[in-house]
Amino acid sequence: MSDDPESGGIWGDESPLTQQLKGYQVRPGQIQMSEWIREALAGRQTRVIEAGTGIGKTFAYLVPILTMGERVLISTATLALQDQLMVKDLPFLQRALGVKRDVVLLKGRGRYLCRYRFFQAEQDLWYDGRGALGRVRHWVDQTRSGDLSECAALPANPELIGRITATGDTCLGQECPEFRTCYVVKARRAAMDAEVVVINHHLLFADLALREEGFGELLPGADGVVMDEAHHVAEVAAQFFGRTVSSRQIALLIRDVRAEREAAGGADHRDLIQAAELVDRASRTLRGHLPDGERRIAWNAKTDEAGVFLAQRAALSDALDSLAAGLRGVADRTPGLAQLLRRTQHLHDHLARWGEEASHTGEVHWLQTTRTGVVMHTTPLEVGEQLREFRMQRQCAWIFTSATLAVGRDFSRFLKDVGLDEEIPCLQLPSPFDYHRQALMYVPEALPAPDAPDYEVRYLAEVRQALEWSGGRAFLLFTSHRALRHAAEALSDLQFPLLVQGEAPPARLLERFQEIGHAVLLGAASFWAGVDVRGDALQLVAIDRLPFASPDDPVLQARINAARARGGNPFQECQLPTAVIAMRQGAGRLIRDANDRGVLLVGDRRLIHRSYGRAFMSSLPDMPVTRKSHEVAAFFSRLRSEEQRADAVIGD
Fold it and tell me: How many other CB atoms are found less than 10 A from the CB of residue 445?
């Protein structure tokens, strides 16, 4: 079956999609995108496609994948898109197009039961979650997939789930006694045989390490890789190629030493427990030398405080060394003890390298404190070269797509971040929505600059007025959790139901928002992207400030310093492009359908008054802009009148 747009085929007016999908409309941008992907897959080419909201990019890449017969990996950044692909889009398109492809969703280790660790937890007499283990025991005996999402009896308990799943650190690989029945191995084998595999970005990068872990590799047999939600690729790669040593890693190591000692008949391993307790105490003391609360701290080895911290880091390193010595004497007794030795040495080595003056100039060392712990990060400043090498080892088609990749019409920042040459073909497809009719941007003229003392009070007053006109039905998006908490308190007397991020899981908040129909949802980072609300439940999106990252962020600081050192412009290279993409994501929550209508309220006058505001405006949908409140009131008044007329027609 051809998807050539010139021949009609799949995209024609009489296509199966038109016949079987209610309300489906043929979109030229979708046809062009699909043809680009078909050519890329056929020629093993690399291409970048920005597809504006409403293009239908998912169908645009799924149709050539399903009809060409190529073996393709589809990588996403979010579980929501994975679920959409597996539950909705792929089954529908296979039925509509009359094709049958072997499609597999491959999840990370943490989403499959680890039989070895489950049996270990059952034997741990000190574990207080044994009752919950008993409740899932029947499922463990019956499951064929080991996919924890299928276990109705499993409570949402992170401690329990951590006990019965493996990570890259805790997996025993081929040495595991349960390797022959391992659900992760089964899932990977199924993925290696499948024609279409849906994975996430982190799992894709983990392909680098799969052969070492005894699981084989996924990519060598792939004809193409589609990276959807590609604006996340560089960020995820930086996490994957970076290193961390954390209080939690150490706490889990100590827990597993105790559990493995019990399973191995620990009467003659008392010295291990003593060594483990020394590590535990040293880790807790290390946290005590840092400020209270949750913070991201740039590392400066030249301060007096750093000297104290480094001395305690050395004490923790010595304690890990002693634990490794104890494990070395018993590592040959069980695979679990041998793996604990490797974990201990791994942590010791990373700890020894963290914070060194002579650290690699392409990395930044920084600290992240939690309420009770600390994470020592080593983050690469750039990952483009590593991603380039990653792709060069795998000669297949690479397609990067998202609704937000460019600043204006400029893809250069994205290309550099992911290690692509400037000559790589890039296609920008604007949204087919009629923003001039459907939307209005409001930048209140009466608001002061965001750093003014009375800014928040006056901004929330503007929001209150807009909510009266919209009848609720709003997302209030904030650039900081502090501003979100302040707004939640200040708006607690609203006549509309108030839903606040953190009071329930995001999926549940979104479900409630749509059920209520006139609610007001307050959200920070996780609600700026990947949230799709269509219809009358959302008609106002308010953004408090232009989403510039905090200049105090240690990774951003290091990137700014690196840009300045090479004679570049840190603001233009580092800060502005990231803020523009974030702004595009947030603004993109408003219009999700051809019938949606609404107002985008931006409370930051810099959008109009500063020269860099043009970079934001040229990147946002081309909608009317007003600074007058009465024009916003008139917009919503017309919208209410149209809705009333539509209701009257339906009533007739």
Answer: 11
Q: Judge whether 153 and 135 are in contact, CB under 8 Å.
A: yes
Q: Rounded to 5 degrees, what are φ and ψ at 421?
A: -70, 155
Provide φ and ψ at 622, rounded to 5°.
Answer: -80, 85
Above 50 in pLDDT, residue 2? no
DSSP-based three-state secondary structure for 573: helix
Name residues whose C-beta falls within 8 Å of residue 87's C-beta, 6 or more positions apart in sequence: none
Q: What is the mean pLDDT of the chain?
A: 90
Using DSSP's 3-state secondary structure scheme, residue 428 falls into strand
Classify residue 610 by its DSSP letter.
S
User: In DSSP terms, which residues pair with 427 in a beta bridge?
Assistant: 49
Contact assessment for residue 61 and residue 399, using Cβ atoms and an 8 Å cutoff: yes
Question: In whole angstroms, how far apart are CA 351 and each of 25, 60, 124, 282, 356?
Answer: 57, 46, 29, 13, 10
* Residue 380 identity (one-letter amino acid): P
C-alpha 433/C-alpha 445 separation (Å) is 27
Q: In whole angstroms, how far apart are CA 358 and each of 293, 300, 489?
A: 30, 13, 47
- 154-160: Cβ within 8 A, 24+ apart: 157/129, 157/132, 159/129, 160/129, 160/132, 160/133
Residue range 310-352, pLDDT digits in tens: 899 999 999 999 999 999 988 888 888 999 999 999 999 999 8
H or E element at residue 475: strand 474-477
DSSP 153: T
CA distance 231 to 236: 10
**Cβ(18)–Cβ(24) under 8 Å?**
yes
* Mean pLDDT lowest among 79-83, 325-329, 340-344, 375-379: 79-83
Q: How many residues are listed for the chain in this entry?
A: 652
Residue 234 · residue 142 · CB < 8 Å:
no
Cα–Cα dist 626/440, whole Å: 7
Q: What share of the chain is helix, strand, coil (3-state, %, to 5)?
A: 50, 15, 35
CA distance linking residue 90 with residue 88, whole number of Å: 6
Our measurement of the distance from residue 315's CA atom to the centroid of its chain's CA atoms, rounded to an integer in Å, reads: 36
**Dihedral over Cα of 604, 499, 535, 633: its sign:** negative
Quickly count: other Cβ atoms within 10 Å of residue 86's Cβ: 15
Q: Which residues pair with 442 in a beta bridge?
A: 601, 626
How far apart CA 524 and CA 547 sit, in angstroms, is 11
Within 10 A of 57 (CB to CB), how many other CB atoms are there?
A: 24
The residue type found at 391 is: R
- Bridge partners (DSSP) listed for residue 625: 441
The pTM of this model reads 0.90
pLDDT in tens, 5-49: 333 467 777 777 777 777 777 789 999 999 999 999 999 999 999
pLDDT higher than threshold 60 for residue 306: yes
* SS3 assignment for 241-264: HCEEEEHHHHHHHHHHHHHHHHHC
Angle at 27 between CA 592 and CA 25, to 5 degrees: 75
